[in-house]
Structures are given as C-alpha cells and as structure tokens.
Amino acid sequence: TLLYTIKFEMMAKRKQSSHPSTVPYVRGFTAPTLANKNSALGSRDNTNHYNFTGHQSIPRCTSVDDWLAQYKEEGQTVAQFLQENPWFSKRKRKYVKQEFVGSGESIKEKYPNGKLYLLPIGELDMDVEVLCSFASTYLGIEMSPLPALKTGVRGKKVWVERRAGDRRNLSARVADNGRLQLNVVSALQEVRYQLDNLPDSLCVVALTKYELYETKSDLFIAGMASGNQRVGVFSVLRYDPNLVFSSETWHEVSTVSSPLSPHETRRLLVERCLKLLVHETMHLLGLDHCVYFACVMNGSGHLAEDFSQPMALCPVCLKKMFLLTKFDMDQRYEVLKDRYKDLGMMKEEKWVGERIKMLQGRSDKKMKALKKD
User: Which residues are bridge partners to 274 per DSSP?
Assistant: First the structure.
C-alpha cells in the first residue's frame, strides 16, 4: 500500500506576523498530555534513553503559517510505526533488488546489503561527503553520495546527463521573477530511474539548487517525497543564509545588505541541509511528523519555523529509529557530539553532551542501587 506522498508548500499566502504572541492550533488539534506521550512511546524497555528529561514540549504556534496552525496532525505512535511500516514486513518490498532476510528484525538485518543514497541534481556548493557521513551516524544506516548529475538549460527545459552523451529533458518553467523552476514530478521520475539502477539502494534522496514546483498555481514548493517509490527531491535554494525572501509574495528574492563570511555561509547552509536531509530520509523510512515533543520530525510551514526546530530526535522518534536500525544509542550520541563540534554546531554539541552526562549519571545511580541490593 502507499505509505505516503509528502508535499511541502511554503507559499505563505498570508503575511507572517513577527509578533511573539501565540495563535491557536488548527481546529481539532490539541497539544499532547503526558499520558499521550507515554502512550505514544509505549514500553521504555528498561533503558534511560527514552527519558523525557531535556526534551521540550511541542511549541505553541506564533504565526498563522505555522504547521500546526494549518494542519491537523494525528501523530504516529511507536506501535503504529511498527504496524504500518513496510520495512518491518516479513515479505520483501516490491522492486527492492538486494538480498532479503525475512527473519531479520531491523532494516539492516532484513536488507543486509542495503544503502541510502544522496543524489545532487546539479552542483550543491557543499561537501556531500560531509552530509552523507553525518546522516549515516544520525540514522544508523549507511548513506553514500552519488556523482552529481550534470545539468543544463535548453529553452524552457532543464536537461540532466545520465552518462556521457545521454541527456534527458526535465520539465521546467520560468517563474514570474524570472528564475527557472524545475518540475518536481519530472525530477522524481529521474531520481526513480537512478534508484532502479542501484541494486543495493533502499532509498534515494536528491537535493538541488533549482527551485521546484508541481502545479501551475504553485509559487514554489520545497520538495516532494514518495514513500512507496522510495525517492524524494528537495530544493536547498532558500536555505542560503544570504538570501532574503519577501514575506508578502515569497517569489521576490534579494541579498542581505551585510552578507555572512564565506565560512559562516557554508557552515549555516550545511547545518540547514543536514536537518532537511535526515528529516526527509526518515519520512522515507516510515516516520510521520512528530506532535509529541519539539523534535527534528516536527512539520514546518515556513522557513523561520523550520530553522527554529531542534536537530534532536525526541524519545518517541528515537525509539522508532532504534527499532528500525538497532543502532548503538550510546555510541551514536558520542559520535554525534564529535560531528557537531567539527561542524561548528555548538548548540547541538552542548545538547548531546548534556544528554550523555544525564544518561551516564542515571546509569551510575542504577549500578549503585544494584550493588546495595
């Protein structure tokens, strides 16, 4: 069955308010209670890793364009994740080509040769090896970079070069602001072609600097993913920290009066793309948007909301990823702390460091209590 198809539209048809006062959630949505969170998590499996300490509640909306001010999310419990996710099936997923072990418990046991892939459509002006190395640690599944598809413009179409001399046209258009936009459905078809020619691929996520659209009425869309097809494509154009987008129309673009240094520009661009990459890949792995805590899997209705959301997995989503991949949670935190330090992501490095100390402290207390007994 179709797992989901995700379309993120950050069109901002209304001017966003900069006033910090809260606005109501969309009709029918209520913030989860502690009982709701515990129910969503289920058993803590005799581990402290799912402790709620240090995880903030899902924030109130401060703009009518915030995700939960527009969309009623039901939330996905761990039990629902296990029941609905085709990666846990004892039957091999359709069109997956690699070896399958039906008795395996995790995705890595079921598909022991499986990999995730990152495909740049055109050059990204960032080190994709860094993106993949981080994502591999964060997700607990190896992600490898594919060579960037060469692109060019032919009239109102964008061509991609699959191999030397083999070019294919993708649908495109010129937007009202004069910028060339790539049709997301056409791009997804190309990503699917690439996936079909990778015998060990589980999913392929494509990133591009082209702006995307789906239908004629779209000003632009951030991207699209198809869980059933195991592919997604997303634009990173608007993640450039030196670009300013009109809050009235969003298609008007200007450059900030005092651009950041090249080093800080790259650092912030990589940070934003890392969050995008792990969020969208986890959608392809079966995680829905999170409504239980402030979490990397929260939905976002606009860029400011996206940038304000944490990089960390909440206890509910952490448990989903652990059950899916069986990664070593202690080792994951230790490696992530080093990666955050290397990437200059000080806020995230501090949070993970505090998490490690909390887990070690609780483990020490537990050992002392056992010795007394």
Answer: none
pLDDT tens-place values along the chain, 373 residues long: 334 444 444 443 344 444 458 899 999 999 999 999 999 999 998 889 999 999 999 999 999 999 999 999 999 999 999 999 999 999 999 899 999 999 999 999 999 999 999 999 999 989 999 999 999 999 999 999 999 999 999 887 899 999 888 999 999 998 877 789 999 999 999 999 999 999 999 999 999 999 999 998 888 889 999 999 999 999 999 899 998 876 655 566 778 878 899 999 999 999 999 999 999 999 999 999 999 999 999 999 988 899 999 999 999 999 999 999 999 999 999 999 999 999 999 999 999 999 999 999 866 565 555 455 5
Select from 205, 174, 349, 218 the least CA-distant residue to 282.
Answer: 205
DSSP of 166-214, one letter per residue?
EEEEE-EEE-TTS-EEEEHHHHHHHHHHHHHT-TTEEEEEEEESSEEES
Helix (H, G, I), strand (E, B) or coil at 203: strand
Q: Are 77 and 320 in contact (CB under 8 A)?
A: no
Half-sphere exposure of 322 (CA within 13 A, CB side): 20
Start-to-end Cα distance in the chain: 51
DSSP strand pairing (150-154 vs 157-163)? antiparallel
Q: Which residues pair with 145 in a beta bridge?
A: 118
The DSSP symbol for 261 reads P
| Residue whose entry in the numeric block shows the structure tokens 């993640």 | 239
Structure tokens at 98: 């690699």
Task: Give the position of tokens 């330090």.
Answer: 341
Can you count the helices (H) and strands (E) in the chain? Answer: 11, 14
